[in-house]
């Protein structure tokens, strides 16, 4: 496995722990639909969160959250629609970004709530 793959998996594992510690229920990890992948789908208080996890080891070039492009957002929306239809979900759905920065062995988190909406795209 490559270093970047291992780092990405480490970041996703941290994200799972982060949401579980906040009493979210993990519904799915690495949910695929066509060319799209949702890193995490979690639920709390009848709200479904579609989570894009972005991690970096430095923020000198670009903050992790800035790498979520319009194309990626559209892919996330299509995958979320598939998940919702297949699972008969009827309720609020939110798109969040969990931006992670790992420096000196410690994770810094920036949980961006309502990072984007399906309506704006």
TrEMBL record:
Which InterPro entries does the record match to this protein?
Restrct_endonuc-II-like (IPR011335), tRNA_endonuc-like_dom_sf (IPR011856), UPF0102_YraN-like (IPR003509)
Gene3D superfamilies from the UniProt entry:
3.40.1350.10
Matches recorded under Pfam families = UPF0102
**Lineage top rank: taxon:** Bacteria
Q: Name one GO molecular function term.
A: nucleic acid binding
Which HAMAP family does the record associate with it?
UPF0102
Cited PANTHER family: UPF0102 PROTEIN YRAN
Similarity comment: family membership: Belongs to the UPF0102 family.
- Quote the protein name from its UniProt record: UPF0102 protein IM532_09205
Source species of the chain: Faecalibacter rhinopitheci
């Amino acid at each position: 496995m490559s270093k970047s793959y291992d780092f990405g998996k480490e970041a996703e594992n941290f994200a799972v722990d982060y949401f579980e510690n906040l009493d979210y229920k993990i519904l799915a990890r690495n949910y695929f639909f066509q060319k799209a992948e949702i890193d995490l789908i979690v639920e709390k208080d009848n709200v479904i969160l579609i989570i894009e996890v972005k991690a970096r080891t430095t923020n000198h070039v670009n903050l992790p959250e800035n790498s979520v492009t319009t194309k990626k957002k559209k892919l996330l929306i299509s995958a979320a629609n598939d998940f919702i239809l297949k699972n008969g979900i009827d309720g609020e759905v939110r798109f969040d970004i969990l931006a992670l920065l790992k420096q000196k062995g410690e994770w810094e988190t920036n949980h961006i709530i309502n990072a984007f909406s399906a309506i704006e795209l």
